[in-house]
Amino acid sequence: MQKILNYINGEYVEPISKKWLDNYNPSNGEVYSQIANSNAEDIENAYQAAKVAFPKWSNTTIDERSRILLKIADLIDEKLVELAEAEAKDNGKPLSLALAVDIPRASANFRFFGNAITQFSSEAHESVGLNTMNFTLRQPLGVVGCISPWNLPLYLFTWKIAPAIAAGNTVVAKPSEVTPMTAFLLGEICSEAGLPKGVLNIVHGTGPSAGQAIVEHKNIKAISFTGGTKTGEHIARTAAPMFKKLSLELGGKNPNLIFADCNYEKMLEVTVRSSFANQGQICLCGSRIFVEKPIYKKFKKDFVEKVKQLKIGNPFDAETNIGALVSKSHLEKVESYIKIAEKEGGKILFGGNRVTVKDFENGYYLEPTIIEVSDDQCRVNQEEIFGPVVTIMPFETEEEALQMANSVKYGLSSTLWTSDLNRTMRISKKIEAGIVWVNTWLNRDLRTPFGGMKDSGVGREGGFEALRFFTEAKNVCIRYEG
Ligand code: TXE
Questions:
Q1: What is the CATH number of domain 255-445?
Q2: What is the position in ligand 1's atom list of the atom closest to the CA of 232?
Q3: Which of 35, 43, 147 to mutate to test the pocket of ligand 1 (most atoms within 8 A of CB)?
Q4: In terms of Cα–Cα distance, which of 82, 77, 167 is closest to 122?
Q5: What is the CATH T-level fold of the domain 2-250+456-477, as seen in this structure?
Q6: Residue 225, strand partner residues
Q7: What gap in Å lies between CA 435 and CA 360, rounded to an integer?
Q8: Which residue spans of the chain are classified as CATH 3.40.605.10?
Q9: How far apart are CA 462 and CA 159, in angstroms?
Q10: Is a pLDDT exceeding 90 seen at residue 403?
Q11: Comparing C-alpha atoms, which of 20, 10, 32 is closest to residue 204?
Q12: Fewer Cβ close by (within 10 Å): the C or N end of the chain?
């Protein structure tokens, strides 16, 4: 059975403990590989490799760093099919989605930061009349930690690693133990691209063991984390007293506000995607749908009709729109919310049932589920479910829509469907979300700040925000004569 090894100092190595975790294929429920079950000793080895590599890498020219990142991007592009197949097998998502989104975005992450670093600069301030000149240095932090989740495995793993190394840091990175395969494959790609040994170290294992060891390591200067809000809280509690820089991209419970004056057909097509893409396992999915009363009945009917057409199948079938959920335990967690919804008086308009897929009988399949609720404060409207489940309810006024949109502890993204410019500006300014998509969804320009507020996290990724996170600003003030 294939072993998923750690990638430390440019070599694939076994965990010191020689212990392994089972890696499941969600499409058929079978164990198909073994994952290095690493601990603090493996993290220390990875840290030492990163520490040794740091002086040279942080003094590598911007052009050379850029060249290597662009080479990694090209190699990911060349290995698109192999990586997409690995991602679909490991996560359960449709191969078509991995081919179209996950892997191209992993490549784009390296290409974007390979270019961005050649444009990144800092400020100078002349204290006029005082013979004083100030300039700001933006120096790499040193060894940094990157920890990522299972929903968009290579996409989110590289979204952290690319800016970290572009800025001159060296990295100890841990992917989710639920979906480690493409992170494992990234190691040899980096070696092939000529990334010097020790610049990137990939250690596999569980959160409480390998992950915790990264967070509590006294010489790892910053933590860039994406995952659940509860875990984010725990990481913050550990890292804050150590005064580490923290970037926390956490959960979401995103509103989708649909006004009667929207482009209805476009809205309907995109809302199916924003509800169920990646089996609803994207922190940016619009899982709370609010529809203006005049079109509520029509929307309810049309939305159910459209969702009924979605094909639930194994990830490798080109026709599949909805693949397997990532794990048995996650399937059970999502199902538990459907039961809670029924207890709370929600009405299941469509879905709610497990699906048996021919030849993949032991896979983790669930119907896309639409629940009509009457109280926006009910649990299925307040808690992140992170599966193919959305709620819908009507609203009368803009004020009511905005009040309900903001009435959750999360504040990650939001979607607004309207053709009214003034309303767009009013709502965009008042909605409590780090991202507002208007007449679109998951439309991403990597230069923009990415992240949420409230319980959706702290800090922003993307563009120069990410390069600023991974550097320390130092003011140099020079007094000169005459
Ligand atoms: O996240 P976890 P998971 C949400 C969503 C999902 C929940 C759990 O609600 O159901 O998070 O998903 C590592 N110290 N999102 O299990 O558990 C862990 O090993 C250090 C939203 O993926 O937070 C993994 O690598 N690390 C999110 C990573 O943290 C620890 C996308 C994420 O694990 C750790 C995914 C610890 N003590 C899930 N405990 C988004 N915003 O995109 C765990 N980890």
A1: 3.40.309.10
A2: 23
A3: 147
A4: 167
A5: Aldehyde Dehydrogenase; Chain A, domain 1 (3.40.605)
A6: 147, 248
A7: 38
A8: 2-250+456-477
A9: 8
A10: yes
A11: 20
A12: C
Residue 327 · residue 178 · CB < 8 Å:
yes
Range 155-158 contact pairs with CB under 8 angstroms and sequence separation of 24 or more: 155/101, 155/102, 155/103, 155/105, 155/106, 155/109, 156/226, 157/106, 157/182, 157/183, 157/186, 158/106, 158/109, 158/110, 158/186
Catalytic residue among 146, 190, 262, 283: 283
- Contacts of 333-338 with CB under 8 Å at 24 or more apart are 333/385, 333/386, 333/387, 334/366, 334/385, 334/386, 334/387, 334/388, 334/389, 335/366, 337/379, 337/380, 337/383, 337/385, 337/387, 337/389, 338/369, 338/371, 338/389
pLDDT tens per residue, range 144-174: 999 999 999 999 999 999 999 999 999 999 9
Residue nearest to atom 27 of ligand 1 (CA): 227
What pLDDT does 328 receive? 98
pLDDT of residue 426: 98
Per the annotation, the verdict on 249 as an active-site residue is yes
Is the distance from CB of 447 to CB of 461 less than 8 angstroms? no
Structure tokens that stand for 440 in this block: 């679109």
Q: Where in the chain is the domain with CATH 3.40.309.10?
A: 255-445
Burial of 398 (0-12, 13-18, 19+ CB in 10 A): middle
